[in-house]
């Protein structure tokens, strides 16, 4: 058996192509991406500041919202700065280990985001279906445990990925046909049997999306049943109103995932840039839109932000 059969090698770096087929438009494409990233930074930092500064917002719902904002900041900042460097300065090089780190953070925090959305559904379920027990059920220690469980689940599921990729010999060159280190884009460069990576990636994605969405849907079935049992129409509207922001966050997160999944199966022959633009949309849209949804629909946050502007104008 030769040494090449028992050792694995990997390149010192990869080269991120950007958006294949649209390289000549990179500068123009970067403008909306930069705008969306700026909105994501400003919006989520504002949410975190307002929740930390206002003691009236130190409640379970807003603690979960703060977790979501922090996750969105990490998710967008994991990929967008490098992406903009590719578009503006043609800085396509990323080290092998830097690529693995980016991939780990990207997929881990995506899983954490799904867990936090599930926790927020549980929060709305308790608030509407068991309002008298809200403060006794959703205590500080329980919220901390939920946050730690979300982190532990993501880290446990994603820790194998770097080790699975490190064992391969990469004989198909260093060019990644993507603008960030996406798992399957890197696997395509590897030689040897990659079936386990393919199966593991699909299994984790299906496990997270199906399981979390199932429990979210169950929560809202119980919520809907409880709301329809309320006596007055005004009480029903008020109860539904407390869920609108969360439903918006769920739709902003899962809709791009579903669209991308359908496109991969229905439009397999579509140009590569179509799938890559959908993947970028999934990364950029939720961090950008979630602060707007919660800022507009949540009165306490809206009032606090408006009061800050009034102070500056006085």
UniProtKB/TrEMBL annotation:
InterPro entries: GPCR_Rhodpsn, GPCR_Rhodpsn_7TM, Olfact_rcpt, OR51/52/56-like
Major location category of this protein: membrane
Top-level lineage group: Eukaryota
Keyword field: Cell membrane, G-protein coupled receptor, Membrane, Olfaction, Receptor, Sensory transduction, Transducer, Transmembrane, Transmembrane helix
Gene Ontology MF, one: olfactory receptor activity
Transmembrane annotation, as ranges: 25-50, 62-88, 94-122, 134-155, 199-223, 235-254, 274-296
Database matches in PROSITE patterns: G_PROTEIN_RECEP_F1_1, G_PROTEIN_RECEP_F1_2
Topology with respect to the bilayer: Multi-pass membrane protein
One Pfam match: 7tm_4
GO cellular component terms given for this protein: plasma membrane
Annotated G-protein coupled receptors family 1 profile domain residues: 43-294
Family: Belongs to the G-protein coupled receptor 1 family.
Function: Odorant receptor. Putative odorant or sperm cell receptor.
Protein name: Olfactory receptor
């Amino acid at each position: 058996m030769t040494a090449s059969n028992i050792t694995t090698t990997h390149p010192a770096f990869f080269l991120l192509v950007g958006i294949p087929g649209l390289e000549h438009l990179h500068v123009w494409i970067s403008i909306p991406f930069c705008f969306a990233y700026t909105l994501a930074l400003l919006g989520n930092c504002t949410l975190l500041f307002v929740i930390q500064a206002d003691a009236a917002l130190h409640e379970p719902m807003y603690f979960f919202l703060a977790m979501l904002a922090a996750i969105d900041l990490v998710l967008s900042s994991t990929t967008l700065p490098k992406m903009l460097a590719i578009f503006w300065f043609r800085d396509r090089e990323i080290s092998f280990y830097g690529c693995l780190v980016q991939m780990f953070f990207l997929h881990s925090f995506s899983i954490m985001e799904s867990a936090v959305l599930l926790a927020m559904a549980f929060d709305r379920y308790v608030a509407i279906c068991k309002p008298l027990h809200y403060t006794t059920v959703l205590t500080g220690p329980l919220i901390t445990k939920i946050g730690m469980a979300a982190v532990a689940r993501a880290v446990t599921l994603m820790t194998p990925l770097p080790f699975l990729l490190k064992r391969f010999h990469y004989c198909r060159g260093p060019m990644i046909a993507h603008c960030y280190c996406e798992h399957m884009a890197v696997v395509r460069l590897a030689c040897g049997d990659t079936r386990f990576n393919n199966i593991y990636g699909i299994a984790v994605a299906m496990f997270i999306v199906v399981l979390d969405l199932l429990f979210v849907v169950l929560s809202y079935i119980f919520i809907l049943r409880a709301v329809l049992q309320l006596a007055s129409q005004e009480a029903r509207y008020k109860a539904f109103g407390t869920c609108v922001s969360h439903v918006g966050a769920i739709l902003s997160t899962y809709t791009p995932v579903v669209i991308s999944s359908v496109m991969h199966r229905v439009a397999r022959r579509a140009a590569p840039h179509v799938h890559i633009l959908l993947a970028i949309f999934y990364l950029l849209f939720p961090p950008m839109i979630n602060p707007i949804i919660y800022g507009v629909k949540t009165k306490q946050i809206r009032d606090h932000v408006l009061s800050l502007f009034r102070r500056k104008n006085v």
